[in-house]
Amino acid sequence: MKIGNLDLGEKPLLLAPMEDVTDASFRILCREQGAAMVYTEFIPSDGLIRDAAKAIAKMKTGEEESPVGIQIYGHIPESMVEAARMADRAAEIAGGHGADVIDINFGCPVTKIAGRGAGSGMMREPDKMVAITKAVVEAVGKPVTVKTRLGWDDNSKIIVELAERLQDVGIQALTIHGRTRCQMYKGKADWTLIGEVKNNPRMHIPIIGNGDITDGPSAREAFDRYGVDAIMIGRATFGHPWIFKEINHYLKYGEAMPPMSVEEKVALARRQLELSLALKGEPRGVYEMRRHLSCYFKGLPDFKETRMKMVTTLDVAELYSILDYICERYALQTDSENPPQALQ
Fold first, then answer.
1. What share of the chain has pLDDT > 90, as a percent?
2. Per-residue pLDDT for 303 more than 50?
3. Which of the four pLDDT bands, split at 50, 70 and 90, describes residue 57?
4. Is 327 noted as a catalytic residue in this protein?
5. Can you give 85-101 as a three-state secondary structure string?
6. Cα(250)–Cα(268) distance, rounded to whole angstroms?
7. Are strands 68-73 and 101-106 parallel, antiparallel or unpaired?
8. For site-directed labelling of 332, which of 43, 106, 186, 247 has its Cα 20 to 30 A away?
9. Cis peptide before 206, with omega less than 30 degrees from 0?
10. Are strands 2-3 and 6-7 parallel, antiparallel or unpaired?
């Protein structure tokens, strides 16, 4: 699959842009685990044009995470155009690698964004959505893509016609989340309309499906039944960056990969923590890593006390000690005659 001249290979898996999740350390780890492309957290256009430090910092990407898309959102056409121009020059403005793709967020359903007309709030103003997209495409040199939803609610699922219009103004790929804005993340994603867009003979750009992909079988069905060119994975990556390796293994061999051991999960947690510290320093690198660590070890028995220690400490040495304890404690959990001592 290609986005412009960017070749992502056959049946690529993409990491969805997610606020407070897809920071640089997580993006690098997901690339190492088999994601074909990753995206920044979504960046407010008004923050960029005000030179807000936080918004500028989110544009900084590294060579090791490329290919990477910078995603922007907003509802004011002039601000979106200027923000897109800044994203196009991200390497110059923020340093690092910059953007391989500029993605427009027309899909976020949270009230503070959609409620003011940005994100999936734009589904209520499709003419404005198309006009903003056209202006952004004409303003930048890098490929422009869009991420959106089926419609605002069940009575306005406009995605089939909207996809044609977005393609006609020059986007080079379209990601569709299989829910309406009003669904938020509830219910089951409807892939039938994603498939209808993909199989529309007028469509010639890549169609990327998003929603409820959690394992190899669900990914294979999305490719085989609905014909999408790529899959984007969001919430299923929380504390599970190796999901890309698992799905790629299933797509290649038709069988599940052996489950990750606790030792392997600890090694990945250490890797992400090291990246977070290198990129952000202390204490921020620890603080922002804790939301990931809280999800790494779901399902382990008698883990509540250890989890609380792990997600409240800001001490790096203590956090490494906790990870060592997890590795020891759960590697020995079958040794009932010599149970490990409680963590002090």
1. 87
2. yes
3. very high
4. no
5. HHHHCHHHHHCECCCCE
6. 21
7. parallel
8. 247
9. no
10. antiparallel
* Position 335 confidence tier, pLDDT thresholds 50, 70, 90: very low
Q: CB–CB of 16/233 below 8 Å?
A: yes
Catalytic residue among 108, 182, 295, 327: 108
Report d(CA 62, CA 31) in Å as an integer: 12
Residue-wise pLDDT for 187-244, tens only, equals: 899 999 999 999 999 999 999 999 999 999 999 999 999 999 999 999 999 989 999 9
Q: Quick check: helix, strand or coil at residue 14? A: strand
CA distances to 28, 39, 178, 200, 293 from 215, rounded to whole Å, are: 21, 20, 17, 27, 21
**115 token code pair:** 């409620």
Instruction: Identify the burial level of 152 via C-beta atoms within 10 angstroms of its C-beta, where 0-12 means exposed, 13-18 middle and 19 or more buried.
Output: buried
CA distances from 259 to 9, 16, 262 (A): 26, 23, 10
- CA–CA distance, 290 with 322 (Å, rounded to integer): 12
